[in-house]
């Protein structure tokens, strides 16, 4: 993990458009985390929460929910990009999210991001970032999402 890229003010965010921002730290996805996510969302499908059954399933083990991986954005994005010169930031949503590969429980994931757009809005800036998650040793991304964040001056 490198130090986060720092965007200072609206112009600092705009200057990052098209630039890769580095990587977050690796994060191990545990069965406990998957089980807690299942409890929080009500998604108790066996491929997530039943290691004995999942051993004979299509992935050979339990896998994280796609939405669990997506929910790591608030933890990992600040490790990649730091906004300064704003009074607050809010999650504005997603334009697109895909889960091209599974996240086996026990694997480590990390994220990287690229600023796609920076649009001035009343009182600040809206940033569209493509956040890409990979697993250690994986051949393809496990999640690719266009995340929208708003920073207010």
Describe this structure in words.
The chain is α+β, with helices and mostly antiparallel strands and 153 residues long. The protein has a single domain, classed as Roll (Thiol Ester Dehydrase, Chain A). 25% of the residues lie in helices and 40% in strands. It has 6 helices and 8 strands. The strands form 2 sheets. Strands 2, 3, 5, 6, 7 and 8 form a 6-stranded antiparallel β-sheet that branches. A two-stranded parallel ribbon has the order 1-4. The radius of gyration is 17 Å and the shape is elongated.
Measured between the Cα atoms of the first and last residue, the distance is: 28 Å
Annotated CATH topology: Thiol Ester Dehydrase, Chain A
State mean pLDDT (0 to 100 scale).
97
In sequence order, what are the helices and strands, one letter per element? EHEEHHHHHEEEEE
**SS elements, strand count:** 8
CATH architecture: Roll
How would you characterize the largest beta sheet?
Answer: 6 strands, antiparallel
SS content category = alpha+beta
* Count of structural domains: 1
How large a portion of the residues is in β-strands, by DSSP E? 35-45%
Helical content (DSSP H or I, runs of 4+): 10-25%
Question: What is the CA-atom radius of gyration, in angstroms?
Answer: 17 Å
* CATH class wording: Alpha Beta
CATH-wise, what's the superfamily?
Hotdog Thioesterase
Shape: elongated
Q: Which residues sit in consecutive blocks of at least 5 with pLDDT less than 50?
A: none
Specify the number of helices: 6
